[in-house]
Structure formats: C-alpha cells, structure tokens
C-alpha cells in the first residue's frame, strides 16, 4: 500500500486507503477537519518536545531513550548492547 514519495497524496487516495484498511473515513475526516486533530497534534508535540528537548535533526533514532546515530551499524550496535535478540546481533 505504500505509494511512491513523488506520488501526491490526495483525499481520494486517503479515502481509498481507509476503506482498504476497514477504517472509518468519516471519523478520519472529522478528526482532521475538527478540533480533535488539533488537540492530538498538540499532545503529540508536547510528547516530542519532552522526548527531544534539544534541537532535533531527522532522522532522530533512539534506543531505550538514548539518541543514536542514524546509520545501520550504530542502530544495530545500540540495540544489541541494549539486549535485543535479533539475528543481526
């Protein structure tokens, strides 16, 4: 269901996606267009600022609350050191 990044997301595509996932399009649309979406966005912003109080650059990767470099080797090393049982360890 992933669309290419250069394929613009339109309301029609969003509605189709919601239907394919058996999600209520009216609830999604109401959330987006109403005050509930604003409330959720503000709550998410507060959580983000709490998790990352300093300026953040994307991608921002954390393992067990610790910021790690965004390259594969650093993420694997941090996850394995933190007790991950992946075959990559």
Structure description:
By secondary structure, the chain is mainly alpha-helical. It has 2 domains: 10-51, no CATH class; 53-89, no CATH class. The protein contains 4 helices and 2 strands. The protein has helices at residues 11-20, 25-33, 35-51, 72-81; strands spanning 61-63, 66-68. Strands 1-2 form a two-stranded antiparallel ribbon. A hairpin with a 2-residue loop joins strand 1 and strand 2. Helix 2 (25-33) crosses helix 3 (35-51). The longest helix is centred in the middle third of the chain and has 17 residues, at 35-51. It starts with 10 loop residues before the first helix and ends in an 8-residue tail after the last helix. The model has no long low-confidence stretch (mean pLDDT 85).
Cα shape: extended
In total, the number of domains comes to 2
The gyration radius over C-alpha positions equals 18 Å
**Spatial gap, N to C terminus:** 30 Å
> What string gives the helices and strands in order?
HHHEEH
Roughly what is the average pLDDT, rounded to an integer? 85
Helicity range? 40-55%
User: Largest beta sheet, briefly?
Assistant: 2 strands, antiparallel
Structural class: mainly alpha
Strand content: 5-15%
Question: Got a strand count?
Answer: 2
Summarize the structure.
By secondary structure, the chain is mainly α. 52% of the residues lie in helices and 7% in strands.
Keywords for this structure?
single chain; 89 residues; mainly alpha; 2 domains; two-stranded antiparallel sheet; 4 helices; 52% helix
């Amino acid at each position: 269901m992933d669309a290419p990044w250069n394929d613009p997301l339109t309301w029609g595509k969003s509605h189709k996606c919601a239907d394919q996932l058996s999600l209520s399009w009216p609830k999604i649309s109401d959330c987006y267009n109403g005050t509930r979406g604003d409330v959720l966005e503000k709550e998410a912003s507060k959580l983000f600022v709490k998790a990352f109080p300093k300026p953040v650059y994307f991608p921002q990767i954390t393992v067990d609350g610790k910021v790690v470099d965004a390259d594969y080797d650093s993420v694997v090393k941090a996850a394995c050191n933190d007790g991950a049982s992946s075959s990559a360890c």
